[in-house]
Amino acid sequence: MTRTFYTLIWLIALPLILLRTLWRGRREPVYREDIGGRFGAGGRPLRRPTLWLHAVSVGETRAAAPLVGALRVRFPGHRILITQMTAAGRATARELYGDVADIAWLPWDLPWAQRAFLRRWRPALGIMMETEIWPNLLHEANRAGVPLALVNARLSARSAARYARLAAFAREAVTGFSAIVAQTDADAARFVALGAPRPAVAGNLKFDIDPPPAQVQQGQRWRAALGERPVLLLASTREGEEALLLDALQTRLPPDVLIALVPRHPQRFDEVATMLAVRGLSQCRRSTAALPGEGTRVWLGDAMGELFAWYALADVAIIGGSWRPLGGQNLIEACAVGCPVILGPHTFNFEQAAADAVALGAALRAADADAAAHAALSLLADASRRHAMAAAGQSFALAHRGAAARTMALIEPLIASGSARSLTAP
Q1: b/e per residue 161-185 (b: at least 16 CB within 10 A)
Q2: Are residues 263 and 185 in the same domain?
Q3: Is 298 helix (H, G, I), strand (E, B) or coil?
Q4: Among the options 60, 130, 132, 241, which is catalytic?
Q5: Would you call 140 a catalytic residue per the annotation?
Q6: 107, 40 contact by CB (below 8 A)
Q7: 347 and 406 co-located in one domain
Q8: Are residues 20 and 127 in the same domain?
Q9: Which end of the chain, N or C, is less surrounded by CB atoms within 10 Å?
Q10: Contact 346, 328 (CB under 8 A)
Q11: Quick check: 167 and 335 in contact, CB under 8 A?
Q12: What is the pLDDT of residue 236?
């Protein structure tokens, strides 16, 4: 009955969801692509075993790279399908996997749409990244005999509390997975509390991502071009955070410090540029390909897929998503490149990684934007401490690798059994 009520809510909301998708397509045209795919429509692909991986947006799509690489090596005869829900995720998938995988939307979570999607692709295994729990998809996959695995799975305490309010609904959902492979022991324990029978722990796939050499070299070239000028990076900032951080930094930073500002979402690039202009901050946009001059206060990173280059450039990085209750953005990339990190108070999406990085001296925790500004000033004035944090960050990133291999060992039996079934399915 709970899933029926859930489906009814989807039906009532569907006209608004469709209108919102088309409206967002005005600024992000990718949202207007293949609307039929949102309902599971499309031609039937070639008859070949398919390994399907769903990553809702940019972070999950990038995190999947080590696993996609391992799947291609271990199962070269299988096709790879990668689905998303957001335009930015779809663009990232095309950038990373366009030559090696099919890219499609995951349908909205309506029973007939999910049935059509599963009939179309006949996947041997569906791999859901991190927190992708869709009740109707799980129900229809179980009916069709398609095993689903939730990998790199995380569940914050606040999310677990929300699920617990609908205990029967949550139990039905989590028991629908053939395997749950959690990031940490704490994540696994929360899944157990919701009813998952035997979640495994494999670590965080984000540790297995190698910094792209071309991006690191790009950052080093920027560094050489800017000379000795200090660079403070505001990385992956979310709505409302730029104003908080700039208010704290604007009057405190020495005039020679360049602020590199890279918003998380591309649809906000112009909005942030306008905000900088209103504040009277001289800016240079990365999309112009021009380097900032001596009088430039902010270098706006308004190009996608270059975050490793920004980390290679910066002396210190303040990580976004953590200054409002949004859960934080990925700090592992900065640590892997050797960039000292300052985190805000809200890192529940990276709870264990953030705690470990702080404990090992790779990151600092600041209570608010003013404290972050104070910490940044202190680090910019202390080269020896920055070097120590950089070394600690790289050691931290290297020490936690191996999640992709552990995850593969857990899902390979599901792939073997699912491949034979998918080829004989009607």
Answers
A1: eebeeeeebbebbbebbbbbbbbbe
A2: no
A3: strand
A4: 60
A5: no
A6: yes
A7: no
A8: yes
A9: C
A10: yes
A11: no
A12: 96
